[in-house]
Amino acid sequence: MMARVAAAKDASTPGTPVSKTDQAYAHVRGKILDGSFPPGSRLVIEQIARDIGISVVPVREAIRRLEAEGYISYTRNVGAAVANVDLARYPETAETLAILESAATALAVPNIRPTDLAKARRINDGLRRTVEALDPIEFTKRNHQFHRVLFDRCPNVHLAKIVEREWSLLGTTRRSAFTFVPERALSSVDEHEELLRLIEIGASIVKIEQFARDHRLRTMHSLEERIGGGLHGDVVPETLA
User: Fold this and answer.
1) 15: which of 2, 184, 198, 225 lies 20 to 30 Å off by Cα?
2) Under 8 Å CB-to-CB from 33, ≥6 apart: which residues?
3) How would DSSP label each residue in 138-200?
4) Residues 6+ apart with CB under 8 A from 17
5) In angstroms, how far is the first alpha carbon of the chain from the final one?
6) How confident is the model at residue 223 (pLDDT cuts 50, 70, 90)?
7) Contact by Cβ (8 Å): 239, 180
8) pTM of the model as a whole
9) Do residue 123 and residue 182 come from a single domain?
10) Does one domain contain both 103 and 213?
């Protein structure tokens, strides 16, 4: 099982040939996630191709792939554009991530090493410092790193990839819950420590999965309570855009 995981990871290691379509996909997706291509912005395929230094064909293929994953919308006679923020999608995306990531984390437990736990704890210590420094962007980045250390050991490579995709989709919906519900950030850090403790003491897989799922859902519920239905309304809180 672990050999299969290693083989899958080797496919993306440095030195592995990358197709031009993959190159275009990584370029456009990266621009969407870092905000260079904001929601609603039109994507000019010819310009993207020139920026990367490739033909338009692989860019078109990358655009179709990103459209299938929900990052891009395509309108006939208009073209491709970055998908607009859909706040109504946030609860569903967060709930989906809670279910899938907790399952991936539970499956990963037998493969998680002491060095992984040490790394996750260092990241979590850094998370605590970002709370103290009131840095929501860095908090979101480190929070993802923390969880990835754990679910990255999931032997089901397909599930781990889906979890990573859901993280990305969640990132296109909101930058950070930290700014909007700051008190939740500190609680989240404490829950991370408890999750690591449960893994260290050999708690049951069922208990670990339940705790990981509840941890994710608490953030979603905190946001819903704070904005009082704004996730489903017409008002777009700036911190979620």
Assistant:
1) 2
2) 168, 171, 172
3) HHHHHHHHHHHHHHTT-S-HHHHHHHHHHHHHHHHH-S-STTTSHHHHHHHHHHHHHHHHHHH
4) none
5) 40
6) confident
7) yes
8) 0.64
9) yes
10) yes
CATH of the domain at 45: 1.10.10.10
Place of tokens 């291509």: 37
Tokens found for residue 167: 């993280």
Instruction: Give the contacts of 129 (CB within 8 A, at least 6 positions apart).
Output: none
Domain shared by 113 and 178, yes or no: yes
How confident is the model over 69-92, as pLDDT tens digits?
777 888 888 889 987 655 566 788
Q: Nearest-CA neighbor of 221 among 197, 206, 207, 213?
A: 213
Amino acid identity for residue 18 in this structure: V
Domain match, 49 and 131 both? no
Domain hosting 37: range is 2-82
Sign of CA dihedral 201, 204, 210, 216: positive
In the chain, what percentage of residues exceed pLDDT 90?
Answer: 50
Distance CA 131, CA 176 (A): 12
Euclidean distance between CA atoms 24 and 7, whole angstroms: 24
Could you tell me if residue 95 is left (phi over 0), alpha (psi between -120 and 50 degrees) or otherwise beta?
alpha
Residues 109 and 165 in one domain: yes
Q: Residue 76 in contact with residue 124, Cβ under 8 Å?
A: no
Q: Note whether 17 and 109 are same-domain residues.
A: no
